[in-house]
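Re: beginner question about structure tokens

> Can someone show what the tokenized structure looks like for a real chain? I only ever see the sequence side.

Sure, here's an example I had lying around. Input first:
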Amino acid sequence: MPEYRIATMSTCALWLALAAACDTKSVDFGEVGRETADDATRLAAAGAPGHAGNDEGTPATSDAGSGADAAADPISLPPSVTMSGAGTLYCGSELCQCNNGIDDDGDGTVDGFDVECTGGIDDDEATFATGIPGDNRDPKWQDCFFDGNSGAGDDRCRYPTECLTGELSLDDDACSVTQACLDNCQPRTPNGCDCFGCCAVELPGGGQVNITLSGSCSLAKIGDPEACAPCTPNPTCANDCGECELCPGKTAADLPESCPPPPPPADAGADPDQPDPSDPSDPNVDPPDFTCNGGSVCNEAVDCPVGEFCSLGCCLVVLR
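And the corresponding structure tokens:
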């Protein structure tokens, strides 16, 4: 019997010790996630292909919309797309076509100055498709066309296709756009387009046509309604083409003379042989310069900040 009493007391002591340990501190599984995030951040800062990072150094991979950054930008990159620490976009293991500095379709324009590049997350420079796996148009609902993925889950945009095709009037309550959709999508929308991929393309002979961006549509097929379906743009969630902005089908040569002239060379001085930018009739004067209404101008010499993409001479958000 004495041995039995000792065993019983030992067992009770063991259970009391375990209970005390459980009450001391609960396990924080968040520590594991934070350690993993730090590892990804180090890889992104090194610019390793296949690892993403934004200008704050936080991960910007396909699940970048989770965690503490979700309040700032709920939109995440598609699973097949990553961004290096320097802001370079990879589609799979290769640079995205609209982000690689190459004229992939041989039309004389490169990346964001190619009208068929819908944004940085675009791996098809030859058509208005994005070339991103899983990025497609739904026959019933549309979301933000320019975030690189289909579905209304992260961008908070849920827009009936009938509003895009004109089957529903824009006055219909179903065609209203939420403030969250405006906040998330409008900064990503190129000049001349609405948030849902309905863009006004300037025609060579004058005028314009509203077309739906899709894989069957290219600049060469603008006049074919079967390939480039007409659409009704939503002016509430759109980036209108300003007078001095570059837009689909509108190049620097099409800008009116009222647009500001390009800045003179830094060493121009007062040389009378230099062209006079204030005199549009001077044959040596370059065409008027383009601007960006409410945004930052970019070109071959001026880059956009990390996390943004140069589209038609204006910086657009990719990840915030």
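Each token stands for a local structural state, so reading them left to right follows the chain. Residues 1-71 have pLDDT under 50 and may be disordered.
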